[in-house]
Write a structure and sequence with these properties.
Nucleotidyltransferase, domain 5; five-stranded mixed β-sheet; 20 strands; 430 residues; alpha+beta; Dna Ligase, domain 1; binds adenosine-5'-triphosphate; binds magnesium ion
Length: 430
């Protein structure tokens, strides 16, 4: 009988580090066994900027997840982000033998992939190579050329790379936390595994993961990634803008945003008042909720326009047919879908992570799209990948949400999406 296999996925976010440990049994059944969420430290705009601080935060998250599994964690797949991540399209070809057509072998294909992978910019490290299509004797759109008779075969692929130093620092922080790194995965690719449907990827879709420090953009067509980029703006900037606009500390601005934030000022009752504690907690003042929404609207509109610009620069004048899927914590803000529809002129929906056995209901939120995604990625891309993948849809369809044992601190963090409400706010809204 096939043995249980263990998988670990770590999502290195700007606001939180989440670790999920899961087991896949002999029948291909996946169960989440351990969850650890720690407040991120030493990570700015998706990048490790302080190795010792990030190490401690990763250690806290991993220790929490491993508390109940009674074994050391398996090598981990790590979801990473940052503006240093780039992608480019490459074309490599297998030279014609000059001896007429012969069947293309697996080794020929491996050689093409190796050649595409070898195309590296200085200072960059390749993280993913995604084969888009093969061109067989000039005929485009071939998904798998193995066995076809051909004289010349070309491979068109998307190569995703990150800055070598940024990648080295991430490795260092994770390894110092006692983990073995299996692979680093671009966060948007991980999110895509958990929030997009196969139909959307086939038809063409833009995934936007709007987190705390970054907005990750990934475009899929005919089932493949065709473009990826990261804009270093997210929910932190929204709260910073609010803090400046309202003249309140950042922590207050964050709380205001979580409680009353809305990206469309017209959705808010113009007379609605919000109470705000004074700086030293000695009283409170009131202001109109609509004044809170205007700076949020400005920042999110600007971010969405940056996305449109980046897509245009990548040659996408028109968005793909399945439209846009929004995920990440900032996507949960009221009015996001309507505002995104206006910005992109296409269908927009919120992308929720898949439900898995052992995953608490609180994690069924866009904030955990990449966290669940990196776990699914680790399963799909290692060990039992094939047997599991074959039964994946069937198995996932039957999953029920059941509660795993969570520590009180992880539970509290899940409930408040990583944010504590301050005593000052609690006094007013008790
Ligand atoms: N209900 C909400 N309304 C508004 N903002 C929210 C809400 N819930 C979460 N957020 C914001 O979402 C952000 C956190 O999102 P997420 O957990 O996806 O980020 P992250 O993965 O840690 O960071 P990143 O992916 O950018 O590196 C925070 O800025 C938080 O304020
Ligand atoms: Mg994230």
């Amino acid at each position: 009988m096939a043995r249980d296999t263990f998988y670990t996925g770590i999502d290195l976010g700007t606001s939180k580090i989440s670790t999920l440990v899961a087991k896949v049994g002999g029948e291909g059944d996946l169960q989440v066994l351990g969850i650890g969420i720690s407040q991120a430290e030493g990570i700015e705009k998706g990048m490790v900027t302080d190795v010792p601080a990030a190490t401690e935060a990763i250690r806290a998250s991993v220790d929490e997840a491993c508390r109940y599994i009674g074994r050391s964690p398996s090598p981990a797949h790590i979801a990473i982000s940052g503006a240093h991540i780039t992608c480019r399209n490459v074309q490599v070809s297998m030279p014609a033998s000059g001896q007429g057509a012969k069947p293309v072998t697996r080794e020929d294909v491996r050689g093409l992939v190796r050649a595409a992978y070898a195309e590296t910019d200085p200072d960059m490290e390749n993280l993913h190579i995604i084969t888009r299509e093969f061109i067989v004797d000039g005929l485009r759109g071939v998904r798998n050329p193995v066995g076809l008779d051909a004289e010349e075969v070309c491979l068109e692929a998307t190569v995703v790379a990150g800055n070598s130093i940024a990648i080295q620092n991430t490795h260092k922080a994770v390894e110092k936390a006692g983990m073995v790194v299996d692979s680093l995965v671009i966060s948007a690719l991980a999110s895509a595994d958990s929030v997009l449907t196969e139909d959307e990827k086939e038809l063409g879709v833009v995934l936007l993961d709007i987190g705390a420090g970054t907005t990750d953009v990934a475009v899929f067509k005919t089932g493949k990634l065709i473009h990826i980029c990261t804009i270093p703006v997210g929910g932190h900037q929204v709260s910073k803008d609010l803090s400046i606009a309202l003249g309140v500390p950042y922590e207050y601005a964050e709380e205001l945003k979580l409680r009353w934030g809305c990206v469309l000022p017209e959705m808010v009752d113009a007379s609605e008042e919000v109470l705000l504690p004074t700086m030293h907690g000695t009283g409170h003042k009131s202001f109109k909720r609509v004044d809170l929404c205007s700076p949020i609207y400005e920042r999110i509109v600007e971010t969405l326009h940056l996305v449109v610009m980046r897509l245009r620069q990548a040659g996408m004048e028109r968005l793909p047919a399945a439209g846009v899927v929004l995920t990440g914590g900032t996507a949960t803000m009221a009015g996001m879908v309507d505002l995104a529809k206006r910005a992109f002129h296409c269908p927009v929906r919120i992308g929720m992570p898949r439900e898995l056995e052992g995953l608490p209901e609180e994690m069924h939120s866009p904030a955990f799209g990449a966290s669940v995604g990196i776990l699914l990625w680790s399963v799909r891309h290692h060990g039992e990948v094939r047997s599991y993948a074959a039964r994946r849809s069937e198995a996932l369809a039957g999953y029920k949400t059941v509660f795993t044992r969570l520590s009180s601190s992880t539970n509290a963090r899940l409930k408040t999406a990583g944010h504590k409400f301050s005593a000052e706010f609690k006094k007013i809204y008790a």
